[in-house]
Design a protein that fits this description.
The protein has 302 residues and is α/β, with parallel strands linked by helices. The protein is built from nine helices and eight strands. Helices cover 39% and strands 13% of the residues. It starts with 6 loop residues before the first strand and ends with a strand.
């Protein structure tokens, strides 16, 4: 809305009840929260159309797009793909069905949108920090999100708009509402990674849309705690990766060059949390020379 959009189409696998039934929906139910979101957008002057559709179903998406165009609606100029599914399992326990189920909404949906909507002004993918910093049991989820990051790079290489945002944890949303989500937040907090409150994440999202590169990793980081948990190699990385410039080789005994944060701290009042603009985590954790010069930038705000 802040960017000027006034006609919104929400595609979701889960249908909304008819408007006549909205008044009876509980505020804490999934449908009630979805309706509240739609009403919030409409209160700002947007025209919102909700369609029950799985974008990972290529034939269904193509048919709907053809019907949408035939009805002479304003053309779709931007895509924000936020679908996702988790099914945490260790690699040794993964089977083909579980892997396919997790890959389908992110990978399949993003690929179909990429192929069927070639003329866009914005193509934004909601990826996850799991693509570069996965937790135990997240192999399939990490793969799905890594595909989104790669697709953004592919589109930009073709001269098409793309941004893949590797989000950290959003608290009070989705699976984070339950006990399992709280345990995951507690474990990440122990490692030095906090959770976004929804209002913080949305404020950051508005700024992220102006990010000039194809990949952004966004999460609140307690750098001292992350260094302590990550070991010496990761600690050196975190101490030296605050510049968005490509890393340069330097003599072994030369102390790392430090750069000031490239953005002001905006989303945290706690002094230990700082805003940094850094290189891809892959550049920090890989031991191969090729990966260590990886050029995909990411940012971490707190």
């Amino acid at each position: 809305m802040a960017q000027g959009a006034r006609h919104l189409v929400v595609l979701s696998r889960t249908p909304l009840p008819a408007r006549a039934a909205w008044a009876g929906l509980g505020a804490d139910t999934p449908a009630g929260r979805a309706v509240a979101a739609v009403r919030g957008l409409e209160s700002q002057g947007a025209s919102v159309r909700h369609v029950a559709l799985d974008v990972a179903d290529e034939a269904a998406l193509r048919d709907w797009l053809e019907g949408f165009a035939a009805e002479a609606h304003p053309p779709i100029r931007g895509v924000f793909h936020a679908a996702g599914l988790t099914d945490d399992q260790l690699v040794r326990d993964l089977d083909a069905a579980s892997l396919a189920a997790v890959l389908r909404p992110k990978l399949g949906g993003a690929w179909n949108l990429h192929r069927l909507l070639p003329e866009l002004d914005a193509f934004v993918l909601f990826s996850s920090m799991a693509a570069v910093m996965p937790q135990a049991g997240q192999a399939s989820y990490a793969a799905a999100n890594a595909f989104l990051d790669g697709l953004a790079r592919h589109r930009r290489a073709l001269g098409q708009p793309a941004l893949s945002i590797g989000w950290g944890v959003w608290s009070q949303t989705g699976v984070m509402r339950g006990d399992t989500g709280q345990r995951q937040q507690d474990e990440l907090q122990r490692q030095g990674i906090a959770a976004f409150a929804p209002a913080q994440a949305l404020a950051l999202f508005d700024e992220a849309l102006r990010w000039p590169h194809g990949h952004l990793l966004a999460m609140p980081i307690h750098w001292a705690r992350l260094r302590a948990q990550g070991g010496a190699r990761q600690a050196r990385c975190c101490a030296t990766c605050s510049s968005p410039r490509p890393p340069r080789r330097s003599p072994a005994r030369r102390p790392p060059r430090r750069h000031p944060p490239t953005r002001p701290t905006r989303l945290s009042a706690a002094a230990p949390w700082s805003s940094r603009c850094a290189r891809s985590w892959a550049a920090c954790s890989s031991s191969t020379p090729r990966a260590s010069t990886h050029a995909s930038p990411w940012a971490a705000w707190a």
